[in-house]
Amino acid sequence: MSAFEVTATDGAARAGVIRTAHGDIPTPAFMPVGTKGTVKSLHPDEVRALGAHVILGNTYHLHFRPGEDTIAELGGLHAFSGWDGPILTDSGGFQVFSLRDTLLAVDDDGVTFRSVYDGTQERFTPEVAARIQAGLGSDIAMCLDICPPPGVPRAELEEAVRRTTLWAARQLEAERAPGQLVFGIAQGGTDPELRRRSIDEISALGFDGNALGGLSVGEDRELMFETVAWAAPLLPARRPRYFMGIGDPEGILRVIGAGIDMFDCVLPTRTARTGSALTWEGRLNLRNARFARDPRPLDESCACPACERFSRAYVRHLVTQDELLGLRLLSLHNLRFLLDLTAGARAAIARGELQAFTAERLARLAAAPKEEAS
Ligand SMILES: [Zn+2]
Q1: What is the mean pLDDT of each run of 10 residues along the chain (374 residues)?
Q2: Residue 318 — φ and ψ, nearest 5°?
Q3: Residues with Cβ < 8 Å from 371, sequence gap 6 or more?
Q4: What would the DSSP string read from start to end of 112-132?
Q5: How far is the CA of 310 from the centre of ligand 1 (A)?
Q6: Helix, strand, or coil here: 157?
Q7: Which residues contact 213 (CB under 8 A, 6 or more apart)?
Q8: 4: which strand partners?
Q9: 109 CA to middle of ligand 1, Å?
Q10: Mind spelling out the 3-state secondary structure of 241-253?
Q11: Which of 125, 186, 231, 302 lies in disulfide reach of 307, CB 3.0 to 4.6 Å?
């Protein structure tokens, strides 16, 4: 039985269901990021109540603190963290390659780097990435890949593509947890030929799902959207397609329109930590004095636990006083905002009205005032 079923299509976009060992994931799906085994400041029941069906855990961080052996001994990441729904873990590759100062050497076998926690030398290979994720017991494991920063010489990008394929083939044969799905990752930046080559090579390996990596890493945004528009449809149609690292409202709508099924981003919780709220009026910086006597909720159309009960004035008060509840309310709201947007897009696909839905939302975003400085 296939782990993925497409239930509706609308242009290039699709709605569907991914079946995992810990439940179904309706797609398109926004995945809140629980870097260290927690969606920052939120109880798992709250995350579930917001409408999240899957969360993401970071292999790199969990490997170093507290370690996959500890987590495995305590029943795996689901039992350890109290989240009993589907979990996707990344491979750790993104952290290894984005923390450039700690990178020591890359060869065909793997990558050597220093731990960001205590500087000890460490080595990741596809087999290590598989073993850690098997220990964590995630429902979806990701392949170790090489994600170069934008603007690297083409030869470096080509080498990243070559090694990413080499590693993907090895990880496919490596250890996995019972019922664990494994997704491959295509690299190639925005280079048409290399991206296409990587997609062909990764697709040919026959993973349970496929991701576009190495995009949304600081390259020109329009070029990124152009790339996803032609690249996403090249990924196997019968398997889930994952765009790694996008989660702003416009980005979500555009990758869904291109045929992407799942995506993740730290934006909602990181934005909360800066004291800001995502709304249809734009991004509100609650530190701004203009909210001091504002009785309205963060967003009039939102039914999250923050908007149901609290005013902008109160949230501003909490934020300016560094009260923990301020961070929690903003995290709840921002996550709900993006989960609602994704659910709205899913419903629009089922009705065959995604284009109108997207146009209306993008128009609202375009009319919103520019983000205020914090
Ligand atoms: Zn809200």
Answers
A1: 91 98 98 96 98 98 98 98 98 94 97 97 98 98 96 97 98 97 98 98 98 95 98 98 96 98 95 96 95 98 97 98 98 98 98 98 89 53
A2: -60, -45
A3: 276, 282, 283, 285
A4: EEE-TTT--EEEE-HHHHHHH
A5: 9
A6: helix
A7: 94, 145, 147, 185, 186, 187, 244
A8: 18
A9: 47
A10: EEECCCCCHHHHH
A11: 302
d(CA 281, CA 182): 39
Give the residue carrying structure tokens 């989960």: 339
Residue 269 vs residues 28, 264, 329: alpha-carbon distances, Å: 20, 12, 10
Expressed in angstroms and rounded, the spacing between residue 32 Cα and the centre of ligand 1 is: 16
Can you state the angle between helices 192-204 and 154-173, rounded to 10 degrees? 10
Q: How far is the CA of 332 from the centre of ligand 1 (A)?
A: 7
Reduced to 3 states (helix: H, G, I; strand: E, B; else coil), residue 306 is: coil
Model confidence pTM above 0.85: yes
Angle at 130 between CA 175 and CA 25, to 5 degrees: 95
Could you give the count of Cα atoms lying within 13 Å of 318 in the half-sphere of its Cβ?
20
Catalytic center residues: 90, 264
Strands 103-106 and 209-212, sheet pairing? unpaired
Q: How far apart, in whole angstroms, are the C-alpha atoms of residue 249 and residue 87? A: 23
